[in-house]
UniProtKB/TrEMBL annotation:
Residues 1-20 form the signal peptide. This is Serine hydrolase domain-containing protein. Keywords: Hydrolase, Signal. The keyword Signal applies.
Length: 439
């Protein structure tokens, strides 16, 4: 659900020959030991092959304040992996004759712009043109407030349309909030009940449900951001993301869900194949996730300080799930390392910098920066001895010193190089360079 300054990198495409029979467990253990030693990742990982668990590991704390360690049954917010659950519910409704993929949504939302030309299929594939309400400039100011159906519909309607339905593809959480309402109207039941009866009960998911206020006494994890130690993140009110990002689960339950989905326990085989049909990179609630010559299907997610990844590879019948409640490293790097050990690829155990910058030295980097290369302005501040960067309309994120005048934010693969004398800053991300000047 949440955003970073620029788009997060996806897994690369190359060619190799390997199978999961070469699983390098010791290397994966070493990788996670390095992350745990340097406080870079807290969460749980679960991997199955042919229905058998071949790797499970929990790192760090579910509740740091009360020193509650994460375990295999720790329940995390999974963010946008919720969309895959919602898509399954929609396709179940299609199989039952309650909906059709190509029906227009004006029956449900007669006052929504373009509703008479937007189909349920376009909502599922992010081709509706409906503006993504989480991109609103004021979004972060009300994420902790409860929102009713009527309030969310008004917020979505106010966002208008970004393009003619069907003409483009653009990821929008609004699509899956609307699908939540369509499901509730079609069945006359709340989304939480549908999730339980039509997915969780069928697939044996004992720890999967629609979240509310986080309750660590019930085994639920809080989320954190690394800022000279783990800092507690605020909670999004789960009335806002709904079927776009409100599901709570465990890594083991996500694996069970994926196996049930691709194993034909939740949908007919033809419906599963429909989900996998891509249009501009998006299937119906799932995405194609390439890893060298392998092709997996699944989804990733992020909300507050939580990050998650679920991917199933039919070749080898392998399912990988990881959920983090705090990460100071790009989640893609964790996924790439895990899949590399599964498929016989080499991995590099990360080495982390111990470079230190004094509190006084940090002052020379603070200020407001603007660029001719990109419209986003960046405000750099110092908070509790940590350099913080914040792009216009987005949440602030901590910068870690790696060398003289050089800082990084691993979670989004951002590097910032400062020149205090010239009053400039260079931002590097995704192979691109953006030049900034202090105002």
């Amino acid at each position: 659900m949440n955003r970073f300054l620029l788009s997060i990198l996806t897994l690369g495409l190359l060619v190799t020959q390997a199978t999961a029979q070469t699983f390098q467990k010791a290397k994966l253990d070493s990788f996670f030991q390095a992350l745990e030693k340097h406080d870079r990742f807290i969460g749980t990982i679960n991997i199955e092959q042919q229905g058998k668990n071949i790797y499970s590991r929990s790192l760090g704390f579910a509740d740091l304040e009360h020193q509650k360690k994460a375990t295999e049954t720790t329940e995390y917010r999974i963010g946008s992996i919720s969309k895959t659950f919602t898509a399954v519910l929609v396709l179940q409704a299609v199989e039952e004759g309650k909906l059709t993929l190509d029906q227009h949504i004006d029956t449900f939302f007669p006052n929504l712009l373009n509703a008479d030309t937007i189909s349920i299929r376009q909502l599922l594939q992010h081709k509706s043109g409906i503006n993504n309400f989480t991109n609103r400039a004021d979004y972060l100011s009300w994420i902790d407030q409860e929102k009713s159906r009527e309030q969310l519909l008004q917020i979505i309607a106010e966002g208008g349309s970004d393009f003619t339905p069907g003409s483009k593809t653009a990821y929008s959480n609004s699509n899956f909030v609307l699908l939540t309402f369509i499901l509730e109207t079609s069945y006359g039941k709340p989304y939480s009940e549908l999730l339980k009866s039509k997915i969780a009960d069928k697939a044996g998911l004992e720890h999967t449900f629609v979240g509310g206020t986080i309750d660590t006494e019930k085994g639920q994890a809080k989320s954190y951001r690394y800022q000279s130690g783990w800092k507690l993140m605020p909670e999004t009110n789960m009335s806002i993301p709904r079927g776009a990002g409100a599901v709570v689960s465990t890594a083991a339950d996500l694996v069970k869900f994926s196996n049930a989905l691709f194993g034909g326990k939740l949908l007919r085989p033809e419906s599963v194949e429909m989900m996998k049909g891509l249009d501009k990179g998006f299937g119906l609630g799932i995405m194609r996730i390439p890893f060298f010559e392998k092709t997996g299907y699944g989804h990733g997610g992020s909300i507050d300080g939580f990050a998650s990844m679920l991917v199933h590879f039919a070749d080898g019948d392998i399912t990988y799930a990881a959920i983090s409640n705090g990460s100071a490293i790009d989640m893609n790097e964790v996924t790439i390392a895990a899949l590399s050990t599964l498929f016989g690829r080499p991995i590099t155990i990360p080495v982390f910098s111990d470079y230190k910058v004094s509190d006084e030295e940090l002052e020379q980097y603070t200020g407001n920066y603007s660029s001719k290369d990109i419209a986003l302005k960046i405000k750099v501040t110092k908070v509790d001895g940590v350099l913080m960067a914040q792009a216009t309309g987005q949440a602030a994120f901590p910068l870690e010193a790696t060398a003289a005048h050089q800082f990084k934010f691993d979670t989004a693969k951002i590097r910032m190089d400062f020149d205090p004398v010239k009053q400039t800053m260079t931002l590097l991300q995704g192979g691109r360079t953006y030049n900034y000047t202090r105002e």
